[in-house]
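Data deposition worksheet. Section B asks for the primary sequence of the deposited chain exactly as it was used as input, without tags or linkers unless they were present during the calculation. Section C holds the resulting structure in token form. Section D is free text for depositor observations; keep each observation to a single sentence. Incomplete worksheets are returned to the depositor.
Section A, Depositor: J.P.
Section B:
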Amino acid sequence: MAATAVGCSLCACSSIGGTQTDTATPTATVSASQDTGSAEDAQDTQDDSDSDTFTVALDKTATWNNGVKAHLSGFSRGTSGEYASPSGKAYLAFSVTMQNGSKSSIDLSMVSLSCPDGAEEIFDTDAGFNGMPDTHLLPGKSLTWKAACVFPRTAKNAQIEIMPMDTSGSGWYRTAIFTGQVQ
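Section C:
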């Protein structure tokens, strides 16, 4: 839990593969980013450039060169509960699915997740926002968990960044920047 206590940071390692779907009905509508307007936003995005980052539409899948994938889904808004940390704050909730398509396990506690404008992550066990899973994801497997970040009720533009960390010695990962609008 210490890794998740850092403002909306979640952590994981290595590679991911498999598919798991979110069964929660989203109460927020998601659309591709209005900022880039490129064809890349209309499809899933592969990490294939020399930049430190790559951009993905909020409702698409980011794929790293080793086969690790991340997908955000089930966007909804709410207010954190009385016993949440922080409590009584408007939030944007979503599910994160990591798939390990690599040949080594991923330490999900080493995956970094940053929320819009550096907002705080919501920890609310009653709502299922328990922070980053503290487990390893084996090759060919996937795992989905819920996350939420402080997000004002009037905010529309979301930017969520995910960066898996590689502890296998083969190198570091680039940051996938998921961007788009929520209603």
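Section D:
The first strand starts at residue 30 and ends at 32.
The two ends are 30 Å apart (CA to CA).
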